[in-house]
Amino acid sequence: MEGAGRESDAALEARTERAADADAEARGVGGFPIPDNVYAETVTEVEHYTDRLFRFRTTRSQAFRFRSGEFAMIGLPNAERPVYRAYSMASPAWDETLEFFSIKVPDGPLTQHLQKIKPGDTVLMRKKPTGTLVLDALLPGSRLYLLSTGTGIAPFASIIRDPETYDKFEQVILTHTCRIPAELRYGEQLVAEMRDDPLVGELVEGRLHHYTSVTRDADFPRQGRITTLIENGKLFEDLGVPPLDPATDRVMICGSMAMLQDLKALCLARGFEEGANNKPGQFVVEKAFAD
Hints:
Blueprint: H1 9-27, E1 38-48, E2 53-58, E3 71-75, E4 85-88, E5 98-103, H2 111-114, E6 122-126, E7 143-149, H3 154-159, H4 163-168, E8 171-178, H5 185-194, H6 201-204, E9 208-214, H7 226-231, H8 234-239, E10 249-254, H9 257-269, E11 283-285
Parallel strand pairs: 7-8, 7-10, 8-9, 10-11
Antiparallel strand pairs: 1-2, 1-6, 2-5, 3-4, 3-6
């Protein structure tokens, strides 16, 4: 019979597609190989908040493990030697996907390209996470302050969604300072959604306090840098809590370099001792930044 012993057109097409897929996998993405020490994750969601800020979600390799608050080195498969920058996982350690919150820098070596990603694109992530903004780096206490500016809220987005946080602290105070109200939207959206979350919704009720301020909008209810609001006592007055006390309070700090330096000095002046993974203390600072 004619055609006997030969592959059908459908079988040949399927085999050709499988070979093409295998060849593409060997080459990597866009013709560039995937390094052995990274995961190639697929973008599943992108949301732009302003012309300076956006968030994105990706798949998560089952082999990837991290502690809430840690960061990983992120890159794109667009060169033989990709550019990597530090990005905190904004998703909690238990999440099946990964979330990141990023600034947009027009001429940034990475972010000029990263801000253009869309669902289906590939993001590279080095396999080893690290960072000091983890609960293990803090001594036991009753109140946890998470002080952030801009995209510095990202690691705290992970920490406030982790049930372990509420096992260790009676109160959690998340502060977020930005230039304008629109830049606060990521945190506002996050905290609002948490109230209805079946895993942590009951835990955060009455215990998580979200405190926002801006520096460039006179109509916003709270004005000023977080350092000013701490030093003049307005933060504590608004929240109805006592001033910072190293006997009971623990502090995590993430934001601009100037903010880090000022808040570190403020904590040290009040008798707080800086902690690390190998020596827990009363406050910790993250020094890793995305461009």
